[in-house]
Amino acid sequence: MAIEINGKTYDTDEEGYLTDLSQWDEDVAKVLAAEEKVEMTDNHWEVINFLREYYNEFQIAPAVRVLTKAIGKKLGPDKGNNKYLYELFPYGPAKQACKIGGLPKPTGCI
Amino acid sequence: MLHIVNKSPFENTTLASCLRVVGKGGDNALLLIEDGVYAITKNSDAGKAVHAVMGGVKVYALMPDVEARGMQDRVLEGVTMVDYAGFVDLVIEHNNVQSWL
Amino acid sequence: MSEVAGDFDDEDGSGTIKKFMFVNRKAPYGTVYALEGLEVVLITAAFDQDVSMVFMDDGVYQLVKGQNTKAIAMKNFSPTYRALDGYDIEKLYVERDSLEMRGLSESDLLVPVEVLSSAEMQVLMNDQDVVIAF
After folding, report:
1. Which of A28, B85, C8, C124 is the most exposed, fewest CB within 10 Å of its CB?
2. What CATH class has C19-133?
3. pLDDT of C16 above 80
């Protein structure tokens, strides 16, 4: 499967995750977000960018519990909690935000 | 604890590593299966290594695998032969099991 | 292994916590064991189990600093060992003999570990509910 934006093709797997991380850009993130019915705000971008940094450092997408804790450490307890993250990404912050961020499905995400 | 080794000691260091850990006391048993049964060959290098830990470690071998390889008359003294039901009993008797890869 | 390892959810939802030990004995890129083992560890940790990891024999090569897989077109998963701490997996044990046989020491490893003698390893293994080898 693939997404096409302005003549550029992005390959995705059967669940809609990008297959090539290096293809990711903000254009495709917006399209992926729209498919997830997520309207991107600065707060959404903050989580997406956090996730991409986490991935760059550790080469995995974190489980939601780990993501929540790590966000809490970096951005404070107001943001490092389930309520905040699920409001931004109602179908699961790790799963949805990873998809929008162009990362693979989190390990341990069942 | 029951340790299971299924690799020939002559082409793989798994048995040596297992004995290094298991031979250091504790309530341990060693079960040899598949190509692992070559380790209990009398007068072999591996047999000597197994013999050296037998004071503290109970050693078992799976008879069907021993027979399949024609080694039944060359087995080190003190090794207990088990059939498949005996294999299951050993697993049940021990608090935990490690199958060494 | 007197009980089934998949007994995670009790009826009251509190779950059963067992001591899981993962024994890693393979080098990282020649076979898929190391990577698969690491994934299983992360999944187990997501179930709030008591997880420890042992590195012995060629498994110690998984933790060597400075891995760079660019030219073999495989994923370098060594940075993931640094994420284990965030998964509350803090018990990483390395067998001393395995390190020494390979000319390595603790300072060659990319995460903090506890180096144990074979005798100490034996005691630790005996103390587990479930031991899984990779």
Report:
1. B85
2. alpha beta
3. yes
